[in-house]
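Problem 12. The chain below contains 362 residues. Write out its predicted structure in token notation.
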Amino acid sequence: MGRLSRAETQERNRAKVLAAAREEFAERGFRDAKVDGIAERAELTRGAVYSNFSGKRALYFAVMAELAERPPDPPHQEPGRTAGEALRAFARAWLARLPLATDDPRGQARLGMDVLPEVLADERTRTAFAQLMRLDAILLGLALERLDLGEGGRRVRAAEAVLTTLHGASQLAAAAPGFVEPFNVVTACERLAGLDLDDRWPPPHLAWAPEARPAGGPWAPPPAFDAVTGRPVPLADDGVVAVLGLHRLEAAEEAVRAAPPGTRITAVVVTGDPAELLPLARLAVAEVTGCLRQAFPAAAQPPLGVVCDESGAPAAAAGVQGADDGTEVAVRVEAGRVVARAEGRGACHAVASTVPSRTTLS
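Solution.
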């Protein structure tokens, strides 16, 4: 075998660090885990660990994201045909990942117990996590709307209630082993499908929204991975691409609501701190989308793609350099060219509401 290239060596070392960190966190817990211990397990230097990850928390989020992104086991039941059935299946898939009272307190089933405490430990992560929960609720709500069979209405508030219930169950399962009764949680989530929360879409304040400018530059995006489908995303296809910082993720819904039916919408998630916050974004999105793929039929998957842009290349293709957490840039793509563009708060609505010369159905 020939010598590995520099990029191949870096990728191999990164994989070794992730595997070693998973063992260290599972055995010792996040707080007692040591970077030196991870380096020793990986048979690398401490400097090699830090050359791949900015710190222990970034490494922990990356380990959890990698686990969450793994293809789930085949579901033991058919996807739901109604909103109630789908939420029941969604809750079952979610709860299947929780630790049991009989699990080893330092075993891998309890690996995720420190995620929320680490989110709470820093204002940056709390602010980002709040918007990630908004995005998760939008994805689940859009899937519920597709199962409404013509009833219409927004279902994002119901999705927020479901996620609140399930995240609460997750924390209680860790803090009070044996207290959470999974059957009751599943039943509660199923019944939330019929709860009237008077949910209406509030349109953005258009007085300060930017105007979409005509554009004509070429569109040549790099390959990218869609966290919603678990497959490569066709960024080159016609549609709307929204580059959103972690403080502007809720704007993805503005694009979905404003666009003509059938428009492909993709949110490209960026941040000013990609080393730590993008692994957190990958984790938060993967936790929900993995359950969505198990609980909802393919026809009901949300009409919104999500790309966590760790390399910066998808954002650069849209003309975004030096992205930060407040970024909001949207472009409309047709026939391999950018035909409309807007920047700033309201850009998603502005670009999505422009009338395309042709609409590609998703």
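Discussion. The two ends are 44 Å apart (CA to CA). Students who got a different answer should revisit the alignment rule from Section 12.3.
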